[in-house]
Amino acid sequence: MNKYKKIKLDDNEQEKNFYNSATVHEQVTVESTEMFPMNVSKVLILYTGGTIGMKMTADHVYCPVTDFFTDLLLTMRQFHDPNNNYDDTIIVNTVVKEEEEATIPKSEITIINNIKTIKKKLKALVTPVSLYGKRTIYTIYEYDELIDSANLTLKDWVKIATDIEINYNLFDAFIILHGTDTMAYSASALSFMLENLGKTVILTGSQVPLSEVRNDAVDNLLGALTIASHYIIPEVTLFFNQKLFRGNRTKKVDATNFNAFDSPNMKPLVKLSININVSWKDILRPTEIAKFHVHKNLNHNIALLQLFPGISYMTLKSFLSSVEGVVLESYGAGNAPDKRKDILQALKEATDRGIIIVNCTQCTKGSVSDIYATGKALTDAGLISGKDMTTECALAKLSYLLGKNISKDSVKQLIKTNLRGELTDVPKIPRFSKFINPDNSYIVKIINLIKSNENNKRKEEKIGLDDPTTSNIVSKEESDNDFVSSFEEKGNNHGQDNTQSRINKILLPSLYRTAASTGDIAGLNELLEGWPYLINNADNNRQTGLHLAAKHNHLKTSEFLIKMGCIVHTRDIHNHTPLWYAVTNNFDGPKKQELIQLLVKSGAIYASDELNDVKELLFRTAKNGNLSLLKHMISSGADINVEDGENRNIIHMASIYKNYDILYYLKDLDNNTLEQDEKHQINHGLPIENNFDSITYCGTYIIEEMDKTSEEAKKVKDVLKTSDPLPTTNVHKLKWNQVDRWNKTPLNYLKMELKIMEEKIMLSNMSMDDEEEEEEGEEENKSCNALMNEKIKLEKVINDIFMPSFISVE
Q1: Fewest 10 Å CB contacts: which of 228, 497, 600, 776?
Q2: Residue ranges making up the domain that contains 125
């Protein structure tokens, strides 16, 4: 009997033996604290080019062939399960090319963040069920012109970032297949361009194509797919040779071996072996209230120069004459020839002209320092220390910062500031004061008891709990027989320790979820200080703490969890996000609206898998006349032009069921005046001006909290300005003339109702003329007056809302 119920086994005895082996038992009896809660994840693979998908031609030359890579994956069992029950296609948004726009019907073009897009159906691939009971649905979006990475330009980075941007709401994670020559440059650039990233992005490729019998492509792609679909690692990363690195820390170090990449100044984030070992304490998470945003304005006028013995003054001066920024690769720990006054003078003249020069070491490993006189000479010449940034990262960061609408002094400051984990110095994290919540103080008391017990064990040098911040796995409960055996072999004390460990592993997540449900920020603060891995822990319904806080309308608790790194995009067993529960909880009022705005400002959107539920709720709301809920749904970003199976929209439903207050509200919503646009900005969480309650540098780390009226805050305000405009508000262009399957518009239904009323009034008047008894005549008169009032009200609705100056009624 198979004890791993989530794993579908064939009747093949060998496969059964495999799943019941000790090695696999070790894997399936551990769990990740930050795996995706849902059992099915959607991943978009952008195939930009590179060796991984090439085919050997008859001339013995590798070259890309259209659809060859996808078709090859479809034949490989580890990449595609042909017996899956999912759709064989998947929708992807693609950018409309200018030369194609004239041939595409306008109804098929969708505007996403001012980008014209069109939906395309691509082949869907579905992985077999993993040892953790999860599947991955993914597709390959193959670029029309595959890029040899040696030909890569800044425009290609913008294209890749844009493709992620327009598909951000459709997929849980992204993989970029890329040539190895400039992969480290792209990983660094994208890490800065993708601001407030809340989803996993992995770059990978191979040294040998997938089509070859012996290759590294299988391990690299399968490893990247596994991490992207199982774990929440909201960074731009690079996966190669069983290791996942932070993207902006990588360098290509080998052109001929499979271990082509390394991260010299930082250990890998993930190592794959029999187990998947994630260093959770090193994983970055969004810790501010801000939406995902792509910065596309990169400065091209930058350059790289390496010092070498004998470099001439004229060469250096000429090189520095026409650039805005330079990365200078100096010797050792950031040294230059301090006896060469001409060289130092050329550098000083350049920095005085406003050229930003970043000093990085030529060494593969190490950092820049001014401990030597030769290093201090460069600092005195106005160069900015790149610390332990790689050259690839320094170039990308310089291009990114010079592309922002900020002062040169701000650029110099930000070069030295850790924005995306590119520097070794640890950034400051939010510090929260002690919270007092007497109603749930028992949680804090229990936590203190657990901490005290663990501290005592360490002091007595007994076996204690493993430090959960260094690993992604926590052992599940062993079988009774295993426990008894362990108890007998290792003695009574060790048995007690194991029991305590199991109790903690059951109790701590339970306390965490209780604290989130009850709004106990004090308890959450204590829990996450001791066990930070709990932040995205999910219950049996796969609901995280943020799901539970949103369900119970806890505004401050939700804000606390988001700032501590709780992901807003996770879905529960019903495929619902925290945003759904914030909208549908049983509360109402300003606090609920603030909670919805908080989530939207943090980048929360409805998942593609819950859009059907959103549509059904919209129609039910319009039918029942629940204006308050409709407002909440619209402010959360629900598409109010969605149609049902009869081609009706919510205007049809409000008209048919005579919910006039909803029609008036929708009319106001459709008003395109500036005042209404500002109102929508507030409703949709788009700030009219920056909020400086917490001062942040470029959207990743909270560096420090300061008084927003202070002079320092005013200076930093300039730093935070972006040259990219905020996405324009989607003022809803409602389809008032939408025709349903019976060829009727909403106005047609109102006119039909008006005609019915007129007939009833006419019949009532005729009946009154025939009445003889006075009492019956009075009742008929009241009924007729009520109908007349309803008729007048309906006529006013038609005149107010459907008058020609507002909507064409033809």
Answers
A1: 776
A2: 31-93+120-282
For residues 568 and 549, is the Cβ–Cβ distance under 8 A? no
Q: Classify residue 770: in a domain, yes or no.
A: yes
Q: What is the pTM of this model?
A: 0.74
Statement to judge: residues 196 and 228 lie in one domain = yes
Q: Which two tokens stand for residue 122?
A: 């691509």
Alpha-carbon torsion (529, 531, 536, 539), positive or negative: negative
Neighbours of 365 (CB within 10 A): 12
Structure tokens at 747: 């106005």
**Model confidence over 523-537: pLDDT tens digits?**
888 888 878 878 888
Instruction: Give the residue from 531, 557, 578 where a domain finishes.
Output: 531
Selecting among 180, 200, 287, 374, the annotated active-site residue is: 180
Residue of 153 and 719 predicted with greater confidence:
153
Residue after which a domain boundary falls, among 498, 513, 531 = 531
Same domain membership, residue 495 and residue 526: yes
Report how far residue 810's alpha carbon sits from residue 800's, in angstroms, rounded to the nearest whole number: 16
Average pLDDT for 779-795: 80
**For the chain, how many structural domains are there in total?**
4
- Does the annotation count 51 as an active-site position? yes
- What are the CB-based long-range contacts (under 8 Å, 24+) for 400-403? 400/189, 400/192, 400/193, 400/295, 400/298, 400/299, 402/299, 402/301, 402/302, 402/324, 402/325, 402/356, 403/295, 403/297, 403/298, 403/299, 403/723
Is residue 133, in this structure, part of any structural domain at all?
yes
Average pLDDT, the chain: 78
Mean pLDDT of 478-501: 47
**Phi, psi (degrees; rounded to nearest 5) at 18:** -60, -45
The answer on 315 and 173 residing in a single domain is no
Residue 117 among the catalytic residues:
no
Q: How many CA atoms lie within 13 A of 173 on its CB side?
A: 29
Within 13 Å and on the Cβ side, how many CA atoms surround 197? 28
Average the pLDDT over 320-330 and give the result. 90
Strands 40-47 and 173-177: parallel
Order of all β-strands in the sheet with 384-385? 302-306, 325-330, 356-361, 384-385
Give the model's pLDDT for residue 36. Answer: 65
Provide the residue type at 392 as one letter. Answer: E
Round to whole Å and give the CA distance between 148 and 439.
62
Residue 258 pLDDT greater than 50, yes or no: yes
Catalytic residue among 51, 117, 237, 700: 51
Indicate if the pLDDT at residue 8 is higher than 50. Answer: no
How far apart, in whole angstroms, are the C-alpha atoms of residue 442 and residue 511?
Answer: 10
From the DSSP assignment, how many helices (H) and strands (E) are in the chain?
A: 27, 26
C-alpha dihedral sign at 572, 574, 576, 581: negative
What's the average model confidence in pLDDT over 502-511?
A: 76
Judgement on whether residues 240 and 146 belong to the same structural domain of the protein: yes
483 in Cβ contact with 566 (< 8 Å): no
Strand stretches in 426-535, DSSP E: 473-475
Average pLDDT over residues 90-102: 90
* Residue 289, in any domain of the structure: no
Q: With contact defined as beta carbons under 8 Å apart, do 413 and 718 qualify?
A: no
pLDDT, average across residues 152-159:
93
Rounded Cα–Cα distance for residues 408 and 726 (Å):
23
Q: How far apart, in whole angstroms, are the C-alpha atoms of residue 157 and residue 727?
A: 20
